[in-house]
Amino acid sequence: MISLRGAIIGGTIALAYAGGAFAQEAPDRAAALAAWDDIHTVVSHPRCTNCHVGPAGVPLWEGLGHEEAGDQAPVHGMNILADESRIGAETMPCRTCHISAASENNVPHAPPMIADAWRLPPIEMAWKGKTSAEICVQLRDPDSNGAFTPEDLSDHLRTSAFVAWGFDPGAGREAAPGSIPEMQEALAIWVAGGTPCAGDPHP
């Protein structure tokens, strides 16, 4: 669960974020890295990594109870592949079951639906099997994060139907930890602190 560290909450920084602009006394490296740890708690959760997979294009059902049944490799059922298109166009399109329409998703085991075309993220946004430092470097680089500047990522969190579903997947599914506002707050601190990642050379 996201928990912005006490030193941050206690007022060691003054942070304001509005409309993509930051006005603050910049947090130090330790505060920004602590905020990244909170972000990583979310992006490394199976609710996110099940879709943020690599070039094989195989979505997962990991962390959804399949392991208890003895399945050590809980891949998506029905032999689903997203392929290079990331929408399954070469085999079976994701939209065959995941209709692009808003839904409360309150029927267990039914395909989740959102008001967007169901698909896997681009290959360069694969997080499955990556370390915290590797994902950190990906997310601060527009070439590997969906062409977002670090500041624009906050708008993505606010507007993406996929992100909203991850925090509220319905039907008894396990949600990503925390909430979108908490994620935005951690992101704001990380960006204001210079988007540091573990392993970066110290200034």
SSE order, as H and E?
A: HEEHHHHHH
N-C termini distance: 30 Å
Oligomer: single chain
Overall structural class, as computed from helix and strand content, comes to: mainly alpha
Radius of gyration: 18 Å
> Helix proportion of residues, in percent?
25-40%
* Approximate strand percentage: under 5%
Protein name: Cytochrome c domain-containing protein
Signal peptide: 1-23
Organism: Sulfitobacter pontiacus
Keywords: Signal
Could you explain how this protein is built, in words?
There is one protein chain. The protein is mainly alpha-helical. It has a domain at 38-174. It has seven helices and two strands. It has helices spanning 6-12, 29-43, 46-49, 132-139, 152-159, 161-167, 180-192; strands at 14-18, 21-25. It has a two-stranded antiparallel sheet with strand order 1-2. Strand 1 (14-18) and strand 2 (21-25) form a beta hairpin. Helix 2 runs antiparallel to helix 7 (180-192) and helix 5 runs antiparallel to helix 7. The longest helix is centred in the N-terminal third of the chain and has 15 residues, at 29-43. It starts with 5 loop residues before the first helix and ends in an 11-residue tail after the last helix. The model is unreliable at 1-23 (pLDDT under 50). Residues 1-23 form the signal peptide. InterPro entries: Multihaem_cyt_sf.
